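Hi support team,

I submitted a single chain yesterday and got back a structure, but I'm not sure I'm reading the token output correctly. Could someone confirm the output below corresponds to the sequence I sent? I've pasted both exactly as they appear in my results page.

Thanks,
R.
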Amino acid sequence: MTTSESWLMIIGMAAITYLPRFLPLGYAHRIRLPRLLNMALSYVPIAALTVIIVQTCVIRHGERAFSADNPFIWGALAAAIAAYVQKRSMVTIVSGIAVFAAVVALTR
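Hi R., thanks for writing in. Yes, this is the structure output for that exact sequence:
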């Protein structure tokens, strides 16, 4: 394969990767969604993040891990309480990490 063929292949692969992502976003401003659908779609990011966090906290090695020595559950619980009480992102993150680290240090 020559150098020009290689560059042509790279440019072609970039276009094939880029276009399916750009086209929906490039024309999305022309589409008006119903208000109810817009409200429903506003919950998608938090729902997806919740699934990721819960799965990380309660599933270890393909098994459910609901036990008192699971540091992920304690860290998530501390972060949830801090988020509810303080409503500040940095406090939530720091408290969750601190409790997680404390439980890891105490259980090892």
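A quick pointer for reading it: The CA atoms of residues 43 and 53 lie 16 Å apart. Let us know if anything else looks off.

Best,
Support desk
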